[in-house]
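USER:
Working in pairs, take the chain set out below, taking as long as you need, and write a paragraph about the fold.
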Amino acid sequence: MPHQLARTLPAAEPERSTALMAALALAVGVVLTGLLGTLFAGTVLARDVAPREVQPRGALQSDEAAVVRLFETSSPSVAYITTETVQRSMFGEERGQGAGSGFVWDAQGHVVTNFHVVEGARRVFVQLDAGKPVEAELIGAAPEYDLAVVRLLKLPRELRPLPLGSSRDLKIGQTVYAIGNPFGLSRTLTRGIVSALDRELPTANYREVLGVIQTDAAINPGNSGGPLLDSAGRLIGVNSAIRSASGSSSGIGFAIPADLVNRVVPSLIGKGRAPLPGIGITPVRPDLVARAGIRGVVIAEVARGTPAASAGLQAMNRRNGDLGDVIVAVNGRGIETLSTFVAELDRAGIDASVDLTVKRGERERKVRVKVIDLRE
């Protein structure tokens, strides 16, 4: 039996091989047929494919159309400002560049921006809309308000000043728009809301701007000096700063209010400087006052012939350490630091009279003084 089986196996081998070969041939044929079919079908589809028909959109929604009109109307008035600076170092003079935003103030070629955009600039160039950069000259600066005005040396054919609005009647939640040049990307529009009002913005010489507008419209480096607009396309603020650990927009931006801008800019154009409200005192340095744990403004000197002198304010006595008069409130508003004091004088304005709450020892009294321009 084993021998017979041994003989039988060779007789069956050719039959199995033939069946296996047939199965393989069939499988290969199916695969090739599929590939050829796919290639053939692809060739046919490539010849027959055409671009899809574009469906008509219809009219923009009313709010979209309003934003488009606002941008098209306002953006030609927004400036891209570039500066050239020269800094001295141990290796000689080194040139630098800066950039920011601004906007047309009037038909005489005056352009408003932030002071920190043009600070230290040797040359300033202003580009409007799609035109070429035009050189401009700095005619007025107010570091205390972070505002500056430059004038175009060559006027374009058409200048379109932005319409002026008011910041006095703004409401939290109101829609606002910022146009500027963040990161050098010109004519960029962002939208947000007024997220807070009456913020304080530190500037120069222990001063703060009061009434600052806080917005969540995206504001980034390069937006500085550009306009903040309301939904009617009116100027309501000048974008000035952001609060961010990374230096990029974090949803908290600050704009100098239009009412203040409208008070400072005409003075910069007419006189080259902004008024500096005061009453005729020289205060003790704020850091020394804070270190002594004193709340208010300590008077170091009182100038003769000033409202402070007429009101009988007394300076500290350096010999015996007597503090003299410490100003603790203006018009009933508490004064913690020198910056809040000068901000309150600025709020009142030149030629206004203010009531000071003055503390000498444990006794308090009120005195009325006139606010004057210390630069006159």
In short: DSSP finds seven helices and 20 strands in the chain. The two ends are 133 Å apart (CA to CA).
